[in-house]
Amino acid sequence: MLHDFGGIVRRTPGTVIRPSCAREVAEAVREAAASGTPLVARGCGHSTGGQSQTGGVSLDLRGLATVHAVQADRVVVDAGATWREVLDATLPHGRTPPVLTDYLDLTVGGTLSAGGIGGTSHVHGTQAANVLELDVVTRTGEAVTCSPGDRRDVFDAVRAAMGRNGVITRAALRLVPAPERVLSFTVPLAGAAGLLRAQRTVRADHVSGLAEPGGRCELRAVVHDGDRPPPGLPPDETGTGMEVEELSFLDFADRMRPDVQELIALGEWARPHPWATVLLPAARAVDVIDATLAEMGPDDIGLSGLVRIQALAPGPVPVPLLRAPADPVLFGLLRAASPGCRPVEEMLASNRVLHDRARAAGGVLYMSS
Prior knowledge:
The protein has helices at residues 22-35, 83-90, 108-114, 121-124, 152-158, 192-201, 249-253, 256-266, 282-294, 344-360; strands at 2-3, 10-11, 15-17, 39-42, 57-60, 67-70, 74-78, 95-96, 131-138, 143-146, 166-174, 176-177, 181-189, 206-211, 217-224, 243-248, 276-281, 306-311, 328-334, 364-365. The protein is an alpha+beta fold and 369 residues long. It folds into 3 domains: 2-61, Uridine Diphospho-n-acetylenolpyruvylglucosamine Reductase, domain 2, CATH 3.30.43.10; 62-177, Uridine Diphospho-n-acetylenolpyruvylglucosamine Reductase, domain 3 (2-Layer Sandwich); 181-365, 3-Layer(aba) Sandwich (Vanillyl-alcohol Oxidase, Chain A, domain 3), CATH 3.40.462.10.
């Protein structure tokens, strides 16, 4: 029986296939299509609603994990490679993908199939908006190379599609110069309105935000290879003090590793994670966020849970299936069903309230949750 990071849905696949090349992926897809058997591609299984599970054929893409040639402007990688493995290959060349997920142990194919959002998405958009070319096996088992200028129909059909329209087997990812170090500023703010205003006005290379039940927020603004605060950094609105930290770029990119190791040791990483993430139009985002946080207490989010708020930009290549509203804001309830907190069923019921509230405001569900 397989489970995913969400720990809520559990299914036993009829067959598990771990292909070592795109040809084997195509064969598996054709055989499943011929027999009418559901087939689901799986990377590290970090979905939270059972999206990486099936009772049919589970296609384990971690067998396709090679990072190929690194050039100045791009790197070619297999879909089962993690972003950690990509970064390990590109940093010796002084290059990095423009958008990295906060947690690096996710596969390239998995996040491109969801969208892929990080702290630089206010400048560069999603990871799916920074792809130069893809190798894809379509639902009929056809192997296709596609890009913005060649087979654009397939290119647009697989990015942010959660695997519904084909299996990504290889990707050419855009690269940009990597900084050597970062200067990180964490500023407490009184509420979501101030946080979103700061995210829109601060001139930083990385911008992200966290919130707490009740409304207190925190802005993180990071400058690359800088020695002073970024322009537009807001003052501390709570009187609790701004934090400043200098790190190597790699340590910053991998900043979640110590926390994850601690959560694994405490058993929190293995708890159910009933996450809910929505993309809201900026004009309505504060209303939705404030109403949701006002209804929450610490037991609604869990001991290791987070509330994430992130302003986004479109990115260089449109991603039609992401269906994000104009001027989008990500709002994520990254819940953990910790002991002593609300049970999973109640957290899921609260998630449905958020989904309905977001849709009424013109927002959409971010499909990875």
